[in-house]
Amino acid sequence: MASVSIREAKEGDCGSILRLIRELAEYEKLSDQVKISEEALIADGFGENPFYHCLVAEILPTPMESQEPHVVGYGLYYFSYSTWKGRNIYLEDIYVMPEYRGQGIGTKIIRKVAEVALDKGCTQFRLTVLDWNKNAIGLYKSLGAQDLTEAEGWHSFRFEGEAMRELAGK
Ligand SMILES: CC(C)(COP(=O)(O)OP(=O)(O)OC[C@H]1O[C@@H](n2cnc3c(N)ncnc32)[C@H](O)[C@@H]1OP(=O)(O)O)[C@@H](O)C(=O)NCCC(=O)NCCS
């Protein structure tokens, strides 16, 4: 039977990661927001000072199977900082292709991110989820995550495009 491996992404995975980023955006009904290219993913993740790190879930067929190993999920994260508690890890995206869901792959990715967080001395592992995404919310809660909107009333904000240029006076 095929097995699944959770491993660090390589530069050559960026095409697969981009395909999955698009699938996740479609799932989130926000496809029009995806502007990233494979070139940008390569430059930003695999240069001298990476802006992000990524885990991929890869199906490894048995030698009897004719298929090649293929990437069916990913978790993309980076490091941030809490002035209250120090080093943080932030999971920007997690996605598993529909036909591979419910087999523990998403949980394995999340556990691996927690492991990286502890290895790097992080005190918090954070992520954000859309309010209607009850499956993902249920999964995070079942693994012990706290809903910060519910518990402390945080809202997520962003400056973008014209608003950001105006702020910067550019
Ligand atoms: C959320 C997600 C990454 C979880 O991955 P996964 O590989 O299905 O996760 P697991 O198999 O480890 O466990 C998922 C749990 O959620 C349940 N689940 C959630 N969505 C499911 C789905 N679509 N199909 C099957 N099970 C699902 C399972 O029953 C399981 O619960 P259990 O441990 O009590 O059995 C995956 O469902 C996914 O990619 N969803 C769409 C994208 C998404 O919502 N991403 C998160 C954005 S913040």
TrEMBL record:
Entry's family note: Belongs to the acetyltransferase family.
PANTHER family: DIAMINE N-ACETYLTRANSFERASE, THIALYSINE N-EPSILON-ACETYLTRANSFERASE
Keywords linked to the UniProt accession: Acyltransferase, Transferase
Domain N-acetyltransferase: 4-166
GO biological process: polyamine metabolic process
Protein's gene: SAT2
CDD domains named among the record's database cross-references: NAT_SF
Pfam families on file: Acetyltransf_1
Lineage: Eukaryota, Metazoa, Chordata, Craniata, Vertebrata
GO molecular function, a single term: diamine N-acetyltransferase activity
Top enzyme category: transferase
Subunit organization: Homodimer.
Protein name (database record): diamine N-acetyltransferase
EC number of the protein: 2.3.1.57
InterPro entries documented for this protein: Acyl_CoA_acyltransferase, Diverse_Substrate_AcTransf, GNAT_dom
Transmembrane segments: none
Species in which this protein is naturally found: Erinaceus europaeus (Western European hedgehog)
